[in-house]
Amino acid sequence: MDIVPIVFSVVLVILTIVLSVVGIQMILVLMEVRRTLRRVNDTLEVVEEKVQAIVSPFQNLGGALSGLKTGMHMFEAFTSYLSKDKPKK
Questions:
Q1: pLDDT per residue over 39-74, tens digit each?
Q2: Which of 62, 39, 42, 61 is CA-nearest to residue 50?
Q3: CA dist 52 → 40, 43, 46, 77 (Å)
Q4: pLDDT for 24
Q5: Cα–Cα distance between 13 and 3 in angstroms, integer?
Q6: pTM of this prediction?
Q7: Rounded CA gap, 44 and 41, in Å?
Q8: In degrees rounded to 5, what are phi and psi of residue 86?
Q9: Distance from C-alpha of 26 to C-alpha of 17, rounded to nearest angstrom
């Protein structure tokens, strides 16, 4: 009996076992990465909600200031219209 086929068979069995273990470990690592990414995603959603809650009043304040600025321009135009019609002394 030749030794080479026996050695190849043993090496093939060992390689199959090692690759199976590596494949199972890879699946477990990918599952852990998936769980971690879900947690990060949930955390980012909470942070986004909190930031939006903080920024929202400032956005409303910007709109109010824009409206106030427009109102002041209208008031200036109205007063200049009124002063235009007054006779000069």
A1: 999 999 999 999 988 887 777 777 788 888 888 888
A2: 42
A3: 18, 14, 10, 37
A4: 98
A5: 16
A6: 0.55
A7: 5
A8: -75, 140
A9: 14
